[in-house]
Structures are given as structure tokens and as C-alpha cells.
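User: Structure please.
Assistant: Input sequence and predicted structure:
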Amino acid sequence: MTKRVVVLGGGVGGTLVANLLVKKLRPGEAEVVLIDEDAQHVYQPGFLYVAFGQKQPANLTRPVRSLLDRRVRILTAKAQRIDPTAQVIATDHGDVHYDELVVATGSHLAPDEIPGLKEATHHFYTAEGAQALHEALKQFRGGHVVVGVAGVPYKCPPAPLEFVLMLDAELRAKGLRDKTEIHFVSPLPRVFPIETVAVKVAPIMESRGIQIHTFFNVESVDPKRREVVSLEGETVPYDLLVLIPPHRGAKVVIDSGLGEAGGWISTDRRTLKATAHPRMFVVGDATNLPISKSGSAAHFEADALVANLIADLRNESQEHKYNGKIMCFLETGAGKATLLDFDYNHPPQPPEPNRMYHWQKALFNQFYWWTVPQGRLPGEKQTKEQQEKAGD
């Protein structure tokens, strides 16, 4: 009987894994089924540019089917519960059995966890949120702007920094910067989770007059008084508030009792296999790995995950190790950007921002649809020495 591999989720991780699987499996070795609730693939990094009127949401969405190899079967259904013992996924279109499962369910925003946040704040982490923020920026004529993070972890850690630096440049171009105070709040002891990035970016922010508030854990927002209050007792007033809401794992993961605190699945950081479930792999935001929740992480995880999953199907040893590779750009405004390239053992050493990295990011955004989801952009090919280091 032909075995079945189910990929749950049609984001970058799910789409890429499904495409790599059908390319690397032997003919007739296994059926690959991708389950997604609305069968739409969204390029979420583009929402940052929607907020500034540089992109349209309609151009950031494609049908999942258009990105999948024809050998991948797609099922448009809502997953309600995962039973790893019976190896069954209950959906609103019936039960789906699997021999191997890849959980690529991503994460969701949880603004309701902070009183007043949903009513008061803007963000750019959804199409609707980015559009609303764009309208707010068009109407803004000066005042206090508060930008920051309302909870960790959160998707795409560079994004809040990119927004505040691009906002500074935008306000300067409009002649509104001298009429505006910009504050950046972070629950961390620095502006970015990784120190080598923080020490590069914080001086840029300070040189542009952006006021930084660290150890600022948002407790509540008062929409009437227009104030953000931290657990530490600090209060910052605002006229425009842009806070990234807390993120949590997918509802199906939480409802199935598969997640740890926050709904993230405990995952082996080398093999990408769920630590408690022998026929389950996890990719992208759904993991609890100590790396950023981003499409870049999913991209570089995919090769090792697919190799280990196929080894599982063939009852072979799993020798492929993910080394924590991440590579992404960080916009610094005024047409410049820098590069973050790192792994478990090597922190990023971002170079001075320049126009080349900005244009490289622009080109990547443009050609994403024809590269990453189909596996046409190479992942992380590791030497034997790198494989051994990844296992440390």
C-alpha cells in the first residue's frame, strides 16, 4: 500500500516541503497531500511595504495550487484536531490518515491577551492591519508615535526595526519629522533579540532621534488617555500607536494538546522531528526552536526535514542536521539595508547599511513567487564538518 505524507499548512514551509518531497521521493513511494484552510499562500513580508503604500495586498497572495508541483494533492479543509497516536487529522471535510505528518501551521496574532491593545493599536502583520496603518499614516500630521513589540516571540524579528527606521525616513521626506517624537519600546534589554544586531542598529536609531525604551513589557493600553503602560510602571503617551501583538501557535496545535506554553511544538533542533511524536515533523513558526519565526527559517529547515522524513519512510537512519541557518535583510530606511546571516553557532555580523542590500531585498521580494515555494532557491547544503557542528 502506498504510504501517505500529509503537510498541514500552505505557507512557505508547507509549500516548499511538499514540493521538495515529490521531487525527492521515488515514483510511487508515497502520496503527498497538503491540507490548507483557504488554499491561499500569502507573502507576509510584503505587508511592511503595504503600510507605506509601496505594495498592494492583492499582489501578495497566490493560490497554493499555482505554487505546487502537480504531483502534490491539495485538500482545502480546516484541520480541527491532530491525533498523533492514531495518526489521523480530523478536518471539517472528514478524517485524513497519515504515515508521516509535517506540521507547518505557522502562528497567529493574539492581541486580546493585552487589555486595550486590539482597540488602540495598528500593526502591519496582516493585510487588513497594513492597509489600516497606511491610511493612518496618510492622515498623520505630527505628534507622538510609539512603535514596538507587545510580546515575544513574534514573527520576523527585524520587521519592527525596519518599520520604525522607514517611518523616520518617510516623515523626513514629508517634512513632518521635526513635528514628531518617535519612541521604540521593547520587552527585551535591547532593541533586537540578538546582541550583535542590536549594537549595530541602536546607534542608528539614536542618531535619528528615535527614543528607545527597553525592558518595556506592555501591560495595557488606554485608548481614551492614549497611553501605553508597562509592567515595570513606565507610561508612554501616543498619538499613533504601532505595536506588534503577541504571537501564539495555531489553534489546531493548542486544541490537540501538542504545544508547549504558547502553542509551540517541542522540536528536535537538528532533525526537525517533534520530540514526543515519532511520525511528526515540524517546520517554520510552529516549532519551539531558539531561532526567529520567519520564512527564512522555514526555507533553510526544509532540506534537512525532507531528507529525514524520507529516511523515516525507508526505515533508514536520520543523518541530516539543520544547523540553525537564517539569512534575511533588514531595511534601515532611505533606500538602504543590511544583511543578517547566522546559524546556531555563529551570530550575525551585519555590515554597514548600503543600497546594494536594499535592492537585493527588493529583487527577492519581486521574484519570491518563482523561487522559494518551489524549491528553486537553494537551501542550506552542509559539509560533513558543518553537519557535525550542527549536532553539538
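The chain has a mean pLDDT of 95.
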